[in-house]
Write a structure and sequence with these properties.
366 residues, alpha/beta, 5-stranded parallel beta sheet, globular, binds fructose -6-phosphate
């Protein structure tokens, strides 16, 4: 049942080329400049009437929501708020008939997310569910549904569901951006072309994991780790830290790279592993200067950067290269080394990877 893999988590990590391909099928026509969502059928008029988007979810799905905010704000130019479901449902959110509330849930059964969805509906919002389970409670409650086609996710730690959620959020942003005229044809076309390459690029990354195994073994004995990045890299850093905590029980924190000096820079001492994501061109130089700050404190720095970025090796102890792609697509690739680092660190520490302590696959109680 694990298809030759030692754990479901590893099997599911390796299923990502397929789950990404399946989630694109029919939605990213090869010769088209845009995205098709026949299940939505939204119109220009409808989209002109939406002035605010709320994205609500828990855990890993919440992290996908943070990426979704960047996508929707930058490509479709609509203000987006991202909320943790257990906060949203109790904070009297300012949701109304001109809002769209998007809930993201792999299982479609998470109780806080379902309650948040009901609250958004009660306040008059349009609602859309992004979920992996057909016929789930959340899919039945929402006005509309876009499915991720990750296939069943058995491991408690979410991997392939997360990347398909990122993909759906990007496709939605392209779709809405075209309807609202905020995204030009040439840029949409470039993104769509980039998407077609992603499954093969993931495959390529997953072929070459020896270096990651070595790093994971090395920092498996650490008690703390830090993940830094700016912009979309920060959103991915949050997920990297959660993955590591969940399955290896190494304490991990993600920081927006520029925020570290406003916080616990004092914890960055000799030998502490710091994973720095540096895939975003607009903030690249700033990120590299943050990298140098932690290096100056003798942290053990692993950078995640695009192939061909030769300069970063001067500053980091190690570099994990990911295939080149558009900045918006980078999260789909950059998270893979983080999933694998978490997996192999957990293995080194003898943890039960598929069933981490105190965690349920689907949280149906508050
Ligand atoms: C993390 C993880 C959890 C879930 C969260 C939401 O690996 O599995 O954080 O992401 O419980 O679950 P869903 O997406 O089913 O609503």
């Amino acid at each position: 049942e694990k298809g030759g893999f030692e754990h479901f988590m590893l099997k599911e990590i390796y299923e990502q080329p397929k789950s990404i391909r399946d989630t694109m099928t029919g939605r990213v026509p090869k010769d088209s400049h845009g995205i098709e969502f026949t299940e939505l059928g939204w119109t220009e008029e409808e989209m002109a009437g939406i002035n605010k988007i709320f994205i609500v979810a828990c855990g890993t799905a919440y992290h996908a929501g943070i990426v979704g905010k960047y996508y929707l704000e930058q490509l479709a130019r609509i203000p987006v708020e991202v909320d943790i479901a257990s906060e949203f449902r109790y904070r009297s959110p300012l949701v109304d008939g001109n809002s769209l509330t998007i809930v993201i849930s792999q299982s479609g059964e998470t109780s806080d997310t379902l309650a948040a969805l009901k609250e958004a509906k009660r306040l008059g919002s349009r609602t859309l569910a992004v979920t992996n389970v057909v016929g789930s409670s959340i899919s039945r409650e929402a006005d509309q549904v876009v499915y991720t086609y990750a296939g069943p996710e058995i491991a408690v730690a979410s991997t392939k569901a997360y990347t398909t959620q990122l993909l759906v959020m990007l496709m939605l942003a392209i779709y809405v951006g075209r309807l609202r005229g905020t995204l030009d044809i040439a840029k949409a076309h470039k993104l769509v072309e980039g998407l077609h390459d992603i499954p093969e690029q993931i495959h390529k990354l997953l072929e070459n994991v020896d270096q990651i195994k070595v790093f994971a073994t090395r920092y498996g004995s650490s008690e703390d780790a830090f993940f830094l990045g700016r912009s979309l890299d920060y959103a991915v850093a949050l997920e990297g830290a959660l993955k590591l905590k969940e399955i290896s029980y190494i304490h991990a924190e993600a920081y927006a790279a520029g925020e570290l000096k406003h916080g616990t820079l004092a914890l960055i001492v000799e030998g502490v592993p710091v994973i720095v994501l540096a895939t975003q061109p607009d903030v690249y130089d700033k990120t590299v200067s943050n990298l140098q700050e932690v290096k100056a404190r003798e942290a053990m720095v692993i950078a995640i950067a695009f192939e061909g970025d030769d300069s970063i090796a001067k500053y980091a102890d190690h570099v994990i290269f990911i295939p080149r792609t558009d900045k918006y697509l980078a999260p789909l690739l950059a998270v893979l080394p983080l999933q694998l680092l978490a997996y192999y660190a957990a293995l080194t520490r003898g943890c039960d990877v598929d069933k981490p302590r105190n965690l349920a696959k689907s949280v149906t109680v508050e």
